[in-house]
């Protein structure tokens, strides 16, 4: 689909757009597809004060299909413009989808790198070692909206010969006068890894090295990201093929980070222990960028491939999936911490404050709220906590285990558990059909979709004897306007 085809088809889907508007589950403060399907956030960046949020997008089908890049912009993280789709599969190198990629901001504009997907159909293939082209593509835009350069920079022939046909999701890291492109890979022994490519001009790229963790960790690493924060190098990625170990790796695929030490000049790479970014049901394909205030901001896909639970409640209204709230990252005491952007406070209204002993029940409008609970020191030996967020959604903490339990509204989601020895505080953001839970200043996070039959839900604090303070806020909605091309 090229842009001309999209614009020609768009008027035919007016009923789809009207159907979307009927859904009570449309989120108030999370980014969603205008219609159809959304997955990975792409090309996150800020340029001349404008934040650009691109995403994998199938506009005319609430299911898997050929991907475009959808596009939202915002200056304040509350008021958004729905831009026209930015990137289309309109060349022979990306004919079956413009897959995930990233942005690299320069003074004169924005460079983008993404994976052009080509799936061969002329005979039978296994689509692992053959039958697929994963082309690395380069774009340039002077403004984040109009593309002036679109070109092929690498094909599978440019990747090491021991790689499968699964090499994708480029992200740029600058160090000592060079650009390094990190891509996720799966080798011919079914081992996950990242590939590094080097350039001094963002156009000419050569393979530099292939990097593995000391021990095998899954068969494929998707959506890698490499950055520095508070003096520490971090590599995030989404390993596939990691088996559950106790309360670790409960999802079908993982999403987390390695604290790393990558000595690019000497090609020496050290990995510390992998930690999940989020212990909830719905998190994948996270990407970060540094904004003009110097903040490292993370956004993820609030979904996951191949899960045994669903979001079918929204499909009947012609849309599916969403992105997490933007989260500011920091690194402290060996841990990556996540907290909602301060700008989210602009949505607050009808606030209340009280002692925890006085907090019994609350009915925020449309189940859209922010709830912050500060506990006096609670350890696994002397306390338990239980909170009912909705009719069949419960949080509990007892004997060092924090649990999220869901009933029918989970659509197959039942329980997720995190080991939390001491519970200091909780910050809960509830939207119509999504919940994000930040535990102990964001040391742990749980994200889930939820599809309640009605939004007249009560929050109830069920446990007794806890001491602390509560602050609650109903939350308003993002304001989204559609950009109309003249």
Describe what this molecule looks like in 3D:
- With 486 residues, the protein is mainly beta.
- 4% of the residues lie in helices and 51% in strands.
- The strands form seven sheets. A six-stranded mixed sheet has the order 20-1-2-3-4-35. Strands 23-34-25-30-31-32 form a six-stranded antiparallel sheet, with no helix packed on it.
- The protein is globular.
User: What proportion of the residues is helical, as a percent range?
Assistant: under 10%
Work out the helix count. 3
Global geometry: globular
* Rg value: 22 Å
> Structural class of the secondary elements?
mainly beta
Index terms:
486 residues, mainly beta, 6-stranded mixed beta sheet, 6-stranded antiparallel beta sheet
């Amino acid at each position: 689909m090229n842009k001309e085809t999209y614009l020609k088809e768009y008027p035919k889907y007016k009923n789809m757009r009207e159907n979307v508007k009927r859904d009570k589950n449309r989120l108030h403060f999370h980014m969603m597809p205008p219609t159809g399907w959304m997955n990975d956030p792409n090309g996150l960046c800020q340029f001349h004060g404008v934040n650009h949020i691109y995403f994998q997008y199938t506009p005319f089908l609430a299911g898997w299909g050929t991907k475009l890049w959808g596009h939202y912009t915002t200056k304040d993280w509350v008021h958004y413009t729905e831009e026209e789709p930015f990137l289309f599969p309109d060349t022979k190198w990306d004919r079956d989808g413009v897959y995930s990629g990233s942005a690299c901001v320069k003074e004169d504009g924005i460079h983008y790198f993404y994976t052009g997907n080509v799936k061969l159909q002329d005979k039978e293939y296994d689509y692992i070692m053959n039958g697929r082209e994963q082309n690395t593509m380069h774009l340039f835009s002077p403004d984040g909206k109009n593309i002036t350069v679109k070109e092929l920079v690498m094909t599978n022939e440019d990747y090491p010969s021991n790689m499968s046909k699964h090499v994708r999701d480029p992200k740029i890291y600058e160090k000592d006068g060079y650009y390094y492109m990190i891509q996720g890979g799966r080798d011919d022994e079914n081992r996950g890894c990242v590939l590094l490519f080097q350039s001094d001009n963002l156009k000419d790229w050569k393979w530099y090295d292939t990097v593995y963790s000391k021990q095998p960790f899954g068969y494929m690493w998707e959506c890698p990201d490499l950055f520095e924060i508070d003096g520490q190098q971090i590599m995030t990625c989404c390993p596939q093929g990691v088996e559950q170990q106790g309360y670790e790796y409960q999802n079908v695929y993982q999403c987390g980070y390695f604290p790393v030490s990558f000595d690019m000049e000497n090609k020496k790479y050290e990995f510390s222990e992998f930690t999940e970014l989020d212990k909830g049901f719905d998190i994948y394909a996270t990407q970060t960028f540094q904004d003009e205030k110097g903040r490292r901001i993370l956004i993820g896909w609030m979904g996951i491939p191949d899960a045994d639970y669903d979001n079918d409640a929204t499909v009947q209204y012609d849309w599916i999936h969403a992105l997490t709230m933007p989260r500011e990252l920091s690194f402290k005491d060996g841990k990556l911490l996540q907290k909602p952007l301060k700008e989210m406070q602009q949505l607050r209204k009808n606030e209340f404050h009280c002692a925890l002993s006085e907090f019994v029940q609350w009915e925020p409008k449309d189940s859209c709220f922010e709830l912050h609970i500060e506990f006096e020191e609670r350890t696994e030996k002397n306390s338990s906590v239980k909170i009912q967020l909705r009719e069949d959604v419960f949080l509990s903490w007892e004997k060092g285990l924090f649990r999220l339990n869901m009933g029918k509204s989970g659509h197959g989601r039942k329980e997720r558990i995190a080991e939390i020895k001491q519970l200091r505080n909780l910050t809960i953001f509830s939207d119509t059909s999504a919940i994000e839970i930040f535990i102990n200043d964001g040391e742990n996070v749980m994200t889930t979709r939820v599809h309640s039959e009605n939004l007249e839900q009560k929050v109830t604090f069920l446990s007794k004897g806890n001491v602390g303070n509560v602050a609650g806020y109903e939350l308003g909605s993002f304001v989204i306007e559609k950009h109309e091309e003249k």
